[in-house]
Amino acid sequence: MKQDSDAVTIPVCYISNHEGFHGSIKNFIKDFVVTEIDVTGQRVNTAAATQTPDCASPDKYEETSAECKWKNHSSVSQDTDVAADCGLDVTVPSPGSFDLSVILGQSVSEELEQFVLTLKEKPTKQELSLGSFADKHHRANVHRAVRHRFPFLMTVTIQPEIRVREDPDYRELSHLVTEDEAEDFFRFIDAKVRGSSYTFGPDDDKEHRTAVHHFLSRRFGKLVETKSFTDQGTTAISVRLREQGRPKKRTAEERKEEEVYTAFTLRKENLETLEAISYMAAALGVLPSDFTYAGIKDKRAITYQSMVVKKVSTQRLKEKTAEFEKRGMRLSQIRSVSEPLRLGRLQGNHFDLVVRDLRPHGAGDAHSSGADTHTRLAALVNEALENVKARGFVNYYGPQRFGSVQSVQSDRVGLVLLKEDMVGVAHSYQKDLSNNSHLCPVRLHSTVLLVSVVTCVAVCVCVCQVSAVRLFFTPEDGNDPQNHAKRHFIQTDNAKESLALMPLSKARERLMLRALNRYGTGPDGCTQAWLSLPHSMRVFYPHAYCSRVWNEAVAHRLTTLGHSARRGDLVWIQEDTGETSSAQIHVVTDQEEHEGVYTLGHVLLPMPGNTVKYPENAMGTWFQERLARDGLDDCRFRIGSLKLNLPGCYRPLLASPSHLSYQLQRAGCGEAGGEVTGNSSRNSDRQLNGSTAEGKEDSLTLTLNFDLDSSCYATICLREIMKCDP
Fold first, then answer.
1. Could you give the residue numbers annotated as active site?
2. 479-509 b/e with 16+ CB inside 10 Å = b?
3. pTM for the structure as a whole
4. Are 148 and 92 a contacting pair, CB within 8 Å?
């Protein structure tokens, strides 16, 4: 795969010392197929990926005693199809999942029933032990089942024992409303289903309603809001879960539309993820930010990934599938869910790759016979794959992270954003100007700025603001519509005309141009332009810069400290606190280095951020000097005005493919040979790199199938296998 001359250079450090071989990838779209693996370990293009009963993250399984969506009473109304499917953090139980005799055992279940009868006859503060449960998922099921069956009970974990007692809030509410209403209300509270509401029975006694309002506000005020309403001459109290942040006044129709989430699996060909989203958003009449996804997938490939769209029903989405297919997008497994999809919520990706035209590295092999060359290549391939299976590869961020075909790399834009809090000091800048009388005008990109000698720092901030936007709109070579629009903006600063020229598929560019047209191309306008992008798009740029630093850090670490764990390196360790175990960062000691307790596979390097710990060896100093070289020695990695916070993370130095298999065959044999027949953008046999298959009938083709963890790059794995850029 050819790289632009200005592209970010990925450092070259290998773990294994096999010879490798030459080859080319992405000759055809079908040569590079990426399938997302969801958090349950299922590939998203299989039916099993949508049928798993546990859609919640294991780490969140036990956050509450009842994380269930359960429609059990006619007074509970929900704007989403609760029973249709499960969302990301809420599990839809089946009736059998609440069988206490199965979950607790027959004897404990009977003891609990007797305890409940005693409570109903004579309230008491006594507790009943349900036993000890070592597995936290089992404990979570116990909490759910007990709270659903007996909403008036409170379940408490005292590691690892679970005890039950009467819930005092339930007892107080049952004195104000009927016991059935109290039970249904507590089931509603436990479920925490977004968009749901609960209505008590008719109550025409204003003083009594006031008492209920006061109780609910006092005990559940942070969670719910209450309102009395009159319908056909009777008055009742309705309870609704609070929205995050300050609730806005919306019509019932708007609320219903806002709370609809539809999940689907997207298959796309030769499209960026954001480009595909832009097409769909325009066709559905929603914003690109109404789509959520777990990760961005490669453009030059066939990819499968999960998505969730807000404010679009399943029926409406299905009506558009034929239109989307004309654009190279195929939607399947369309279903209702209750939550958006969070970025990073995936286990990894499965890759089906074809490497064509295999050749040995050595020039001396050029004159060997075909049979000898094939035999040698087979040995080279086998050696390479066995080494990578056993030892892994350096876990570099791939060129896609930086925009490998762009004249201006994403990391450069990210650096400009990090160097200043963009226009975070714009207000103080304006205040400084108003407090200074000796000012002079300076013209910068068609924007007149009043500049004082004592406000030079503020001017630098403005330069950074405009520079970040101008970097973003730097055109490529060529005069295609996108680059023509970018070039027009750079030359004229006319956002309105540039917006008219920008193709509809370019979501990011159009969003920013629309904001620049509305707010102007000065500092404030630049801020609004960045804020017009969804958070996942905005944060991509500073993340790209941090990724470049991480890549350089890995190369320096391997070059200077070698291929073993050294004193001061960072590794994960598991700390068991009894009820739960959690991973903690540990600094390798001198003794652990000498005893070989940890290997290079355990070593982590931090992605720069404001919460990470840096290595306590020469690498810690390297990070400080590297950031200082870019003017970020005092960087907080927080861009307040753009609502960006970069806490940082820890990334393993090595990664390994799993479930690796391969097939080596002649180019003319079977499906791998392919035919150059495509003239349609949706033809999976269409060539991508402009090369021809003619004259290569006798070459070997390698088909690879493997899984990688999230944020690991198949092209980097291939580079370790082949010992060259594929």
1. 298
2. eeebbbbbbbbeeebbbeebbebbeebbbbb
3. 0.65
4. no
